[in-house]
Write a structure and sequence with these properties.
rod-shaped, Flagellar protein FliT, 70% helix, mainly alpha, 114 residues
Length: 114
């Protein structure tokens, strides 16, 4: 039988994945980043138990990984939205720059009479 710590890690990974899935449309980029960091930490801890992984554990891991495509899809949507926002912000900045004064505030303008 596998070490109970492996079971605890798998349960934690499954719980966090289910929490993300249940609130998928409302998560922010920061929350997705936290999820990815937590998941990475759990996977790193699981690596020490790799020789003792059972078929039951492997099936549980496959079940957890089966949700990755849905999570990744949502992450890509958020990435695209951020990219569009950056492009729009850049376009606004270019337009504002065109209308900004191109002369120095403390300069003088001298008009000579003819």
């Amino acid at each position: 039988m596998a070490d109970p710590n492996m079971q605890v890690l798998l349960e934690e990974l499954q719980h966090r994945t289910e929490a993300v899935l249940s609130n998928l449309m409302n998560l922010s980029e920061e929350e997705f980043e936290q999820f990815a960091d937590q998941r990475q930490r759990i996977v790193e801890q699981m690596q020490s138990f790799q020789p003792s992984i059972t078929e039951n554990n492997k099936q549980k891991i496959r079940d957890i990984l089966s949700h990755d495509s849905v999570i990744l899809q949502r992450m890509h949507v958020l990435k695209d939205e951020a990219g569009h926002w950056m492009e729009k912000r850049g376009a606004i900045r270019v337009q504002q720059h065109a209308y900004q004064q191109a002369y120095s505030v403390d300069s003088l303008f001298i008009d000579h009479r003819k």
